[in-house]
Amino acid sequence: HMSPFFVFTQPQVARNLAMFRWCTIDGARRKAARYGFRGASYPWETGISGEEECEKWLKLITHQSHITADVAYALQQYVDCTGDVQFYEDHAAEVLVETARFWLSKAVPDGDSLSIPDAGGPDEFHVVCNDSAYVNNLARLNLVLAARAVEHLRRHAPQKLAALEARTGLSDAEVEQFTSAAARIKTMQLDNGLFEQCAGFFSLRDEIIHNAWGSDPFNTQTVKQADVIMLLYLLPDLCPPAAIRANWDYYEPRTVHQSSLSHAAHGVIAAELGLAEKAGHYIRQSLGMDLYDEMGNAAHGSHMAAHGMNWSAIVRGWGGARPQGDRFAVHPRLPAAWKRLRFRLKWRGADFTVDATHARVSVTNAPSAAASLRASVRFTSRPCL
Question: Pairing state of beta strands 113-115 and 108-110?
Answer without folding.
Answer: antiparallel
